[in-house]
Amino acid sequence: MISHIDVSSVLKRSVCDLYSNLVTRPTGAAVRIGIEHHLDEIGDKSLAVLDFSHVGLLDFSCADEIVAKLLQQYVSDDIPRREVYFVFYGMNESHIDAIEAVLERHGLALVTQLADGAPALMGIIEDDQREAWEKICELGSARPADLADAIGVPHEKAARTLDTLWRRRLVIRQESGYVPVRGVIS
């Protein structure tokens, strides 16, 4: 299931409908909790498009509360109880600066949708993972053998890389193979 979450609307419902800036850690925590409540209603396997289009300012503490803490709940070395994937959309330069800083601090990565609709990665990601993710975006989907052939690595390495990308919630694992996390906003 795909769910569009307007972060500005969550801010207005959770904190105050008088402004559109995400500043202070308590504000970020309230917005994250609002997003979590929404995610609780949409099932065990879902894609959430977090839309920052109508958010004015995003400071580092809010980025940490909303982005890092939200991602950390669903990115795991263990088999997660729920599969929630995120696409971050509508970010401006100030949003990107704050989000990149918290991704780096926590060793996280995420998928963002660019203005032209193309997906892109932000954050900390190893070169082989980035190459695999970009190839999957190009192919549309891939099984380990497909990826191994496409990028010229052993099957076992391709399988490990795909599993890592899945655990980091950068690709979705399906019966037909792995597909890139993508938004649907145009």
**Low-confidence runs of at least 5 consecutive residues:** none
User: What Rg is obtained from the alpha carbons, in whole angstroms?
Assistant: 16 Å
Largest sheet: 5 strands, mixed
Helix and strand composition category: alpha/beta
Which bin fits the share of residues in helices? 40-55%
Number of strands: 7
Please, how many helices?
Answer: 7
Quick check: average pLDDT? 90
> Looking at the chains present, what oligomeric state does this protein adopt?
single chain
Question: Outline of this structure?
Answer:
With 186 residues, the chain is an alpha/beta fold.
For the structure shown, list the relevant keywords.
alpha/beta, two-stranded antiparallel ribbon, elongated
Question: What can you tell me about this protein's structure?
Answer:
This protein has helices at residues 7-14, 25-40, 60-74, 93-106, 127-139, 144-151, 155-167, and strands spanning 2-6, 45-51, 83-89, 109-113, 119-123, 171-174, 177-180. Helices cover 47% and strands 20% of the residues. β4 (109-113) and β5 (119-123) form a beta hairpin. It has one domain. α5 (127-139) crosses α7 (155-167) and α6 crosses α7. The strands form 2 sheets. The chain has a 5-stranded mixed β-sheet with strand order 1-2-3-4-5. Strands 6-7 form a two-stranded antiparallel sheet. By secondary structure, it is α/β, with parallel strands linked by helices. The radius of gyration is 16 Å and the shape is elongated. The mean pLDDT is 90.
